[in-house]
Design goal:
Elements (H helix, E strand, L loop, with lengths): L27 E2 L6 E5 L15 E2 L1 E5 L12 E6 L12 E2 L6 E3 L2 E6 L4 E7 L3 E8 L6 E5 L4 E7 L4 E6 L12 E7 L2 E2 L5 E3 L10 E5 L2 E7 L5 E9 L3 H12 L4 H16 L2 E3 L5 H14 L4 E2 L1 E3 L5 E4 L6 E3 L3 E2 L1 E2 H4 L3 H8 L1 H18 L5 E2 L12 H10 L7 H13 L12 H7 L10 H22 L2 H10 L7 E2 L4 E2 L26 H4 L7 H8 L2 H13 L14 H9 L14 H7 L3 H15 L15 H11 L1 E2 L7 E4 L6 E5 L5 E7 L7 E7 L2 E2 L4 E3 H5 L2 E8 L19 H4 L1
Parallel strand pairs: 33-37
Antiparallel strand pairs: 1-2, 2-4, 3-6, 4-5, 5-11, 7-8, 8-9, 9-10, 10-19, 11-18, 12-13, 12-17, 13-14, 14-19, 15-18, 16-18, 20-32, 21-25, 22-23, 23-24, 26-27, 28-29, 30-31, 31-36, 32-33, 34-35, 34-37
Helix pairs in contact: 3-18, 5-6, 6-8, 7-8, 7-10, 8-10, 10-11, 13-14, 16-17
């Protein structure tokens, strides 16, 4: 079974500023690769530079953009040309035929109609191989364009190379940041047609030049068949390291050999989860495309020096440092689904990622929040707390847990000493237990994330034997109660005086809430669901409140945003009530039902969402993909489980999507999941067996899964209504009330 054939990199790319179907790019890359490549159809320096409906192509872009909201850095553009020289961005695009192009994770192929030239590319981790074919070999050349920022080019005709660097960056980089590149061609270079151009597209008349936003035209002396190959090495360290990366990864292998290597690596990754090929093709395409997307981020930013040491350029201090580094990831996004999925599918790589973020703390003084490549400071809270708590609770190794804990305690106890780090308004939180609405933007979202972060730190404190901090943090984890307004039945912005924010409306977005309103942002208490249920009047009342959420009209008021942001538009279009699956704060809503003893509601809403709102098409995601987080939500849903509270090593039961699934674990064991009598009509779980024994609990532990297990779901077409004991529900031994 060739799983690559099911993957469509165009998934989620039919996005614009006003509406996201994923806000993804059609990335050609190795899993977690440092270098990613995409088509560019629109002339913008970053953001929405590709759309699948466009029929004009600016070139093939080296990109590290994790999100259009974050932007790109170290980007380059490649464009084969013939005929008169054409350099200006608005003048150089060529028509192309998307339907005759090939986009796969391991390979892209595209023909530039205007220039009667084709480019193929296959990626390695820090390099790539390209193959160029010109129908008219006269005046054939390859254009390299940089973006805003200082850049440099240098020709070496004897070595048949073009090398240089670019400092293009949207942010998160020190002044000495650069992406270094070396391009080596198989054919000789035509010296008369090689030029470097300045930002005004005038030739500088030199073999090397450094300046603002340069471009270079590489003249090619092609063989008679008009085809040649080139290899590209990349580095954040130096030109020498870029050449070393190219030689180490590509060597003497030809293009087809390198493509086979890339395909084999992707097949191995996708083969981590095996699904029978007799399942519906559309579902297989969606599943394996989502699995591909979970393995794109975070990206490796480390390299191996000449002696084989793991080293990285630190975007936090601008120095060359030892050890691994991973970037292009926001922890507010990935802690809910992506990282818990890594703990199952690739714990070895997860350990390395965690160690890299420990190093980020050592190099910057603060644990990271949103890194691309350095700190960007986006989104509320410090949700890296949950990332480390989940790993420690699941006994993931490969990182320095003590130093991680030191860094996590710092942002929980010390106010930030600069922008974009730590916990905003921490003094208020420590004094009041919440952030005053009139003093801190998104006060409710921040406060709830701080309380959950404190729970996660209490989990780590317990594991590391710090009993005093465990008790204090467990108590702080209850702070969410201070923001519950019983009169309105929601989490509510509260002023320093203790008074509630006036003029409450649960449909108002913004203000105390981030990317949502009271309906979307009042449920971020996954660490103490029973305690929250008590505030709502008990578990049955909380179930009724959730029923109301899913049954409500998807109405909203723009509130403090002052305009309709894309998350509002996507929630309205999904027609799932106030369940905004398009955005991370709503991810756990369906699975709350199971934690409250109403699993059939979880099964209904999870299956409905998977079947109606996910596909492999360009409009196939219900909102921002955000570093694999939305895809990982789908993967977990298809497995019939969900990590409801990262930091607690349990997975809440849902409704599996496939009849048979087998997960290859890195410890050599297998997790087999079967669902008998499964279909769109038979979405409800009648019974569950684990290793041949009846499984009455509504969750699995991480240890049960990683020890190797056979799970059998018996499916039915009728919702099963029955009562459950507390011991059968998730968090029976590990909710916040027990943590102290």
């Amino acid at each position: 079974m060739e799983r690559l054939s099911y993957v469509n990199p165009l998934q989620g790319t039919a996005s614009v500023y006003e509406y996201s179907y994923g806000n993804t790019l059609p990335l050609v890359s190795r899993p977690f690769g440092m270098a990613s490549w995409s088509l560019q159809t629109r002339e913008v320096k970053d953001g929405w530079f590709f759309h699948p409906s466009d029929r004009r192509l600016n070139g093939v872009r080296l990109t590290r953009q994790p999100s259009p909201w974050i932007g790109d850095y170290g980007q380059l553009l490649l464009l084969p040309q013939t005929g008169p020289s054409c350099l200006a961005p608005e003048l150089r695009p060529s028509s192309y035929e998307p339907e005759k192009s090939t986009l796969r994770p391991d390979y892209l192929s595209v023909r530039f109609s205007r220039y009667r030239a084709s480019l193929e590319l296959t990626p390695a981790e820090r390099s790539a191989a390209i193959r160029l074919a010109y129908e008219d070999s006269r005046n054939a050349r390859l254009l390299l364009a940089t973006y805003e920022g200082e850049s440099s080019f240098q020709f070496d005709y004897a070595a048949r190379t073009l090398s240089g660097f670019t400092r293009a960056s949207r942010g998160g980089t020190p002044d000495n940041f650069a992406l270094y590149f070396v391009i080596a061609f198989d054919c000789e270079l035509d010296e008369t047609a090689c030029d470097i151009y300045n930002a005004e597209f005038a030739p500088v008349g030199a073999l090397s030049h450094t300046g603002e936003q340069l471009s270079a035209s590489v003249g090619l002396k092609l063989p008679t068949d008009g085809t040649t190959q080139a290899k590209i090495g990349l580095s954040f360290i130096s030109l020498e390291q870029a050449a070393l990366n190219m030689e180490r990864e590509l060597g003497d292998a030809d293009f087809d050999e390198l493509r086979s290597q890339a395909a084999a690596e992707w097949e191995e990754r996708l083969g981590t989860i095996e699904i029978k090929s007799d399942e519906a093709v559309d579902q297989l395409r969606t599943f394996y495309t989502c699995l591909y997307r979970t393995f794109l981020f975070p990206r490796k930013s480390y390299e191996l020096d000449a002696s084989g040491r793991t080293v990285h350029y630190s975007p936090f201090n601008g120095k060359l440092c030892e050890g691994p580094m991973y970037s292009d990831v926001g922890f507010w996004d990935v802690y809910r689904t992506t990282v818990p999925l890594f703990s199952l599918l690739c714990p070895r790589e997860l350990g390395e990622m965690l160690q890299s973020w420990v190093l980020a703390y050592k190099e910057s003084g603060w644990m990271p929040k949103w890194v691309s490549p350095g700190e960007r400071g986006a989104m509320p809270g410090t949700l890296i707390d949950a990332v480390f708590a989940d790993a420690i609770a699941k006994e993931i190794d490969g990182f320095d847990a003590q130093t991680a804990y030191q860094g996590l305690l710092k942002h929980a106890t010390l106010p930030p000493d600069r922008d974009m780090v730590g916990r905003e308004g921490l003094d208020h939180y420590i004094r009041l237990g919440y952030l005053p609405d009139e003093l801190v933007h998104h006060s409710v979202s921040h406060s709830l994330d701080y309380a959950y972060g404190d729970f996660c730190l209490s989990v780590i404190a317990r594991a590391l034997g710090d009993g005093e901090s465990q008790l204090a943090l467990s108590e702080r984890a209850r702070n969410y109660r201070l923001l519950f307004d019983a009169e309105v039945g929601f989490m509510h912005g509260r002023q320093e005086s203790g008074a509630w924010r006036p003029d409450f409306n649960p449909l108002d977005w913004g203000g105390p809430y981030c990317e949502g309103g009271a309906w979307q942002c009042s449920w971020a208490v996954q660490h103490d669901i029973r305690g929250y249920a008590e505030l709502l009047g008990g578990s049955e009342q909380m179930v009724r409140k959730l029923d109301e959420l899913f049954a409500a009209k998807p109405h909203f008021n723009v509130g403090s945003y002052g305009m309709e942001i894309h998350e509002m538009s996507e929630m309205a279009a999904a027609d799932l009530g106030q369940f905004a699956i398009s955005n991370q704060p709503s991810f756990h809503f369906p699975y709350l039902f199971t934690a409250l003893g109403a699993p059939s509601r979880t099964q209904y809403w999870a299956r409905k969402t998977m079947e109606e709102h996910f596909s492999a098409e360009p409009n196939g995601l219900p909102g921002d993909e955000d570093n694999g987080s939305l895809s990982a939500w789908y993967i977990f849903g298809a497995m019939g489980m969900y990590p409801l509270c990262p930091g607690v090593p349990e997975y809440t039961l849902g409704s599996p999507l496939f009849g048979s699934m087998s997960v290859k674990l890195q410890n050599g064991r297998r997790l087999d999941i079967q669902s008998v009598n499964n279909s769109s009509d038979h979405k409800y779980v009648k019974s569950v067996a684990l290793n041949g024994e009846t499984h009455e609990k509504l969750f699995f532990t991480h240890a049960q899964l990683t020890e190797g297990a056979k799970i059998v779901f018996q499916m039915t077409d009728e919702a099963i209504l029955q009562s459950y004991s507390p011991q059968q529900l998730p968090f029976s031994q590990s909710d916040v009330s027990d943590c102290g």
